[in-house]
Design goal:
- Chain B: Pfam families: DAO (PF01266).
- Chain B: This is Opine oxidase subunit B.
- Chain B: Keywords: Oxidoreductase.
- Chain B: It comes from Halomonas beimenensis.
- The complex is a heterodimer of chains A (110) and B (374).
- Chain A is mainly β and 110 residues long.
- Chain A contains one helix and seven strands.
- The termini of chain A are far apart.
- Residues 105-110 of chain A have low confidence and may be disordered.
- Chain B is of the alpha+beta class and 374 residues long.
- Chain B has three domains: 5-52 and 166-233 and 319-373, 3-Layer(bba) Sandwich (FAD/NAD(P)-binding domain), CATH 3.50.50.60; 102-158, no CATH class; 235-315, D-Amino Acid Oxidase, subunit A, domain 2 (D-Amino Acid Oxidase, Chain A, domain 2, 2-Layer Sandwich), CATH 3.30.9.
- In chain B, the strands form four sheets. In chain B, strands 1, 2, 3, 9, 10, 11, 12, 17 and 18 form a nine-stranded mixed beta sheet that branches. In chain B, strands 14-15-13-16 form a four-stranded antiparallel beta sheet.
- In chain B, helix 1 (21-32) packs parallel to helix 6, helix 1 (21-32) crosses helix 9 and helix 3 crosses helix 6 (165-178).
- The longest helix of chain B has 25 residues, at 67-91.
- Chain B is globular and about 65 Å long.
- Chain B starts with a strand and ends in a 17-residue tail after the last helix.
- Classes of the chains: A mainly beta (110), B alpha+beta (374).
- At the A-B interface, loops of A face loops of B.
Chain lengths: 110, 374
């Protein structure tokens, strides 16, 4: 995946790295990053499409307000990426349209 | 039709006090009669029931102790497709009206039996014309494959429906302005005085003069009505609403407690609390609402909540509307109800016709506030 991210990382915190998978591509990110930061670093654009008209979106406010960063994390749909820290091995996917509550294997508590 | 300044005050044929769903629907209806109309709205500090309501166009069970209310509710429901169609044509806004029927879900046999009896009484009162059915759980499952096993059954009415109340308010407002209507958000109306054949209405930013004045200020009507020889015994009743994330359509009919919007948002109510003018939310009521919703539709158990709010219904002692023309101050009208969505088409249609022409076939004598003084 081409890294189209215009985000430049400032050396202000620990440089410890973890590997997450963005649409199955491994991406090295800082251990204290949010999943939304990983999405931006990976250049996953758009990172979701809207339920109303399928228009393309990407993380925006990065503080839990705008819900533009909704992504699928480890099989769980509609996760607010900016509020969830990365974990080594985390699998992130695009959120395409509205979540379907039926047939969510990884998210089924039954 | 644009109101013009005169003697330092602005004037209109009619002033509607209150820019919510009730006031805007009436204002639009008055414009159909060629009247110049100004809507005097308090502004963003108002209680704004129109922004917080549930969006049902609901028939079943309404007016169980008042056949005239059942009758005007059904009349409004029948008028809705025409109003929604006109708004779409005139403003391009689809208010997402859907009237394919609705279900009231019951969690106990006693609750279901009580509703069955109530609707049977309403059918008798309507001379047999009150379409509805009582459904057992397997029948409910035909409508909702995801229904929970705890549900006893439901009552079904083919005349029920829902719409998007925010889009409706926007469509009404846009159409009103496009026809030259003025919305004055200058603040709360301070006084209504009668001068000869006209009214002078004082607001913080100036005065309006008009031949007709319609009180559509929700809970604010309580203070306004006595200024034109009327009484509006309205009080707040709080409802709390939960909003879940958008999910793919799973609910193809509205229910009394849960509905899904055109965009996929799940809206969950309803509560009724007597807490004065507090429009906040409380954890215990939200938990109760959520628990019931999960019993009705277990797949909601891990849906994410994104918002919650409280809103204040405009209630009367018997829960029915007040529609009344002032005898002391001819030209003044009081309109108050807690179903601004359901009754919206009635308000834009026959009720506005009544105000414009002082003549109507509506059974308005049933809705005078004097009934509370008996």
């Amino acid at each position: 995946m081409p890294n189209a991210s215009p985000f430049e990382r400032l050396p202000n915190r620990s440089r410890a790295q973890v590997t997450v998978f963005v649409e199955d591509e491994p991406v090295e990110v800082c251990a204290h990053d949010s999943a939304a930061a990983a999405v931006l670093a990976a250049g996953l654009l758009p990172s979701r499409t809207t339920p109303a008209d399928a228009s393309p979106r990407a993380p925006y406010c990065l503080m839990g307000v705008c819900f533009e960063c909704l992504i699928e994390i480890d099989g769980a749909p509609n996760q607010q990426g900016c509020m969830i820290p990365v974990r080594d091995g985390m699998r992130i996917r695009r959120q395409c349209g509205a979540r379907d509550m039926h047939g969510e294997g990884a998210h089924d508590h039954a | 039709m644009t109101p013009r300044p005169r003697n330092g005050s602005r004037s209109a044929d009619a002033c509607v006090i209150g820019g919510g769903l009730v006031g805007m629907a009436i204002a639009l209806g008055l414009q159909r009669h060629g009247l110049s109309v100004a809507v005097l709205d308090e502004g963003d500090i108002a209680l704004r029931a129109s922004r917080g309501n549930f969006g049902l166009v609901w028939v079943q069970g309404k007016g169980d102790t008042q056949p005239a209310y059942a009758s005007i509710t059904r009349r409004s429901a029948r008028l809705w497709p025409d109003l929604a169609g006109r708004l779409q044509e005139q403003t391009g806004i689809d208010v997402q009206l859907q009237q394919r029927g609705g279900l009231y879900l019951c969690l106990t046999e006693d609750e279901l039996e009580a509703r069955r009896r109530m609707l049977a009484r309403m059918r008798d009162a309507a001379g047999g014309d009150y379409p509805h059915e009582t459904l057992d759980l397997p029948q409910v499952r035909d409508y909702f494959p995801d229904i929970g096993d705890w549900v006893s059954g439901a009552t079904w009415c083919p005349e029920d429906g829902h719409l998007n109340p925010l889009l409706l308010l926007r469509a009404l407002t846009e159409r009103f302005r496009a026809q030259g209507g003025v919305i004055d958000n200058g603040g709360r109306v301070q006084a209504i005085d009668r001068h000869g054949e006209s009214f002078r209405i004082t607001t913080p930013t100036g005065a309006w003069s008009c031949a007709k004045v319609v009180l559509a200020a929700g809970l604010g009507n309580r203070e306004l009505a006595p200024q034109v020889g009327l009484s509006a015994p309205v009080f707040p009743n709080r409802g709390q609403v939960l909003i879940a994330e958008r999910v793919r359509p799973f609910l193809h009919y509205p229910t009394g407690h849960v509905r899904q919007t055109g965009e996929g948002t799940v809206q969950i109510g309803d509560s009724k609390e007597d807490v004065g003018f507090d429009s906040g939310t409380t954890t215990d009521v939200m938990a109760h609402i959520a628990r019931r919703a999960v019993r009705l539709f277990p797949l909601l158990r891990d849906v994410r909540m994104v918002r919650a709010w409280g809103a204040l219904r405009v209630m009367t002692p018997d829960g029915y509307p007040v529609y009344e023309a002032s005898r002391d101050c001819p030209g003044a009208y009081l309109v108050t109800c807690h179903s601004g969505v359901t009754l919206g088409a009635l308000h834009e249609g026959p009720l506005a016709d009544w105000i414009a022409r002082d003549d109507t076939d509506l059974p308005l004598e049933e809705f005078h506030a004097q009934r509370f003084a008996l």
